[in-house]
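Structure tokens please, single chain.
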Amino acid sequence: MPSNKSQTGEPTYHYTAEDQAEINQIDDWDWEICDLERGWLGPTERIEEHFHRLLISMGYAAQRMPSLKSLRFEIQSENEFILYFRNTADGITLGWECYPEYQPDERVAKAWNIDPDDPKVDFAYQYDASVALKSWPPEPHS
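Here you go.
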């Protein structure tokens, strides 16, 4: 079952202010949970700092795997997030697909040894960004 929690136990998503206000007004959770017509969606607002920290950790961990050929990490929620890494004869690519868009900060860029302005973006149905890496594991910035 997908989780809304990071490894530290902190949520990766939270409810919008409107949804949280509605949740705070619920008195009878048994009725709420069983109401098939209404249904209930999960939290939809991504907590950017938690995503940054997650991708920082993944970047430094991946650098310790010089033989890494492929990585795919998915967060399944109302707003999907997919991080992928491919190391093939055609090139080395780090990318992510998500909605809403995600922009790595300097710490994430440093962990993956990329320039934060490098991602090539495809604005189709969802945000799809990728970066071509020069080598793997990456050479340290000079």
